[in-house]
């Protein structure tokens, strides 16, 4: 089938993820709404991505394959954007997939709620090989994404479609960023007055990688810091005027503290207690921030162990991670009793889940309400 004027262009960068690509494309082929094109960008893969992509391209004229040298995720997305013909763009990674009613639902919402630059879908984190659902997020807020977007990402790329002409006006993704390129993109959208409409229904899925050992906390923090710095300044990349595109006085110290604790959670999970402690103290001296016990909740996130809720995983966390957490907290000038209490506070979602797994929802719920966990 040849789609002359597609409503949706799905841009799929792929670097050495050929093993997942067929699942992704099959989820698009299964759509109830057929006015789309899928653009696979092979970003210099050295696995069988090219062979798999070309075989998928042969199945359907709506599937297009572009190949480039290994220039990175942002460059691949920008390449796809440059050839996309759809009215709306969805940036879907090769290991993601969409529900078969995603485009039919989106097309209905766009028709009934026109005038928005962005439409945001609910999404789920799956451990697909084991058929395990880790987490779902159902967005609710509608309207301008400014100023909230200056300090918090509005959502992962795969959960948001953006009007094509608006995305191209923003200038695409920044290839110089090694992480957080999506947040940087949404900040520019916010400064240009973008409005978002949210669909509180899971329409897209993210393949959850439960092992955080390959994540680089320093790379993540560097990118988070750079994007936060940009957020508070007039963005000269935006050529059109906007009432929101100027400098802002942000509580950058608090933002940086949250960023640092988030990536330190990854480092602690990797066992780097000494490095995490030294790094925190260096940044604390630089920013002169105060630290409250509730701040340390940021150590647990989807980047570290925030969505670990299987019985086996909880047991491992309690056995291996809890002592590391307490050791880290002790180094922050809390007492031993305080460190133990704060550690349990950080781990409370897992401890509450453990009550449910051990005693059932009724008894477990009662115990949790009584704070017996």
TrEMBL record:
Top-level taxon of origin: Bacteria
InterPro entries assigned: Glyco_trans_2-like (IPR001173), Glycosyltransf_2 (IPR050834), Nucleotide-diphossugar_trans (IPR029044)
Alphabetic keyword roster: Transferase
Gene3D superfamilies the UniProt entry points to: Spore Coat Polysaccharide Biosynthesis Protein SpsA, Chain A
GO molecular function, one term: transferase activity
Keyword Transferase among UniProt keywords: yes
Transferase in keyword set: yes
GO biological process: one example: single-species biofilm formation
Domain Glycosyltransferase 2-like intervals: 9-105
UniProt name for this protein: Glycosyltransferase involved in cell wall bisynthesis
Taxonomic source organism: Algoriphagus halophilus
């Amino acid at each position: 089938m040849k789609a002359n004027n597609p409503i949706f262009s799905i841009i799929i960068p792929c670097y050495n993820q050929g093993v997942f690509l067929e699942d992704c494309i099959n989820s698009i082929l299964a759509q109830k709404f057929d006015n789309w094109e899928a653009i696979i960008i092979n970003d210099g893969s050295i696995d069988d991505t090219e062979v798999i992509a070309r075989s998928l391209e042969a199945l359907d004229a709506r599937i297009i394959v572009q190949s480039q040298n290994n220039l990175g995720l942002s460059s691949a997305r920008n390449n796809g954007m440059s050839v996309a013909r759809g009215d709306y763009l969805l940036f879907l990674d090769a290991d993601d997939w969409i529900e078969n009613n995603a485009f039919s639902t989106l097309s209905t919402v766009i028709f009934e709620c026109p005038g928005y630059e962005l439409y945001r879908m609910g999404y789920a984190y799956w451990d697909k090989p084991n058929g395990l659902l880790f987490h779902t997020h159902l967005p609710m807020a509608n309207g301008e994404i400014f100023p909230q977007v200056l300090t918090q990402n509005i959502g992962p790329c795969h959960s948001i479609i953006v009007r094509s002409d608006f995305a191209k006006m923003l200038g695409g993704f920044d290839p110089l960023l090694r992480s957080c390129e999506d947040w940087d993109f949404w900040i520019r959208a916010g400064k240009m007055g973008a409005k978002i409409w949210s669909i509180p229904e899971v329409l897209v899925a993210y393949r959850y990688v439960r092992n955080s050992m390959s994540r680089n906390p320093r790379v993540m923090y560097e990118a988070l810091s750079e994007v936060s710095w940009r957020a508070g300044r007039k963005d000269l990349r935006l050529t059109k005027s906007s009432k929101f595109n100027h400098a802002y006085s942000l509580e950058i110290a608090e933002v940086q503290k949250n960023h640092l604790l988030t990536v330190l959670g990854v480092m602690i999970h990797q066992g780097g207690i000494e490095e995490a402690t030294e790094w925190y103290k260096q940044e604390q001296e630089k920013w002169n921030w105060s630290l409250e016990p509730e701040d340390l909740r940021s150590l647990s996130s989807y980047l570290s162990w925030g969505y670990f809720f299987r019985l086996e995983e909880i047991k491992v966390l309690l056995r291996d991670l809890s002592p590391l957490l307490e050791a880290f907290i002790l180094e922050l000038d809390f007492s031993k009793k305080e460190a133990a209490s704060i550690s349990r506070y950080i781990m409370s979602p897992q401890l509450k889940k453990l009550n449910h797994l051990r005693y059932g929802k009724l008894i477990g719920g009662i115990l949790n309400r009584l704070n017996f966990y």
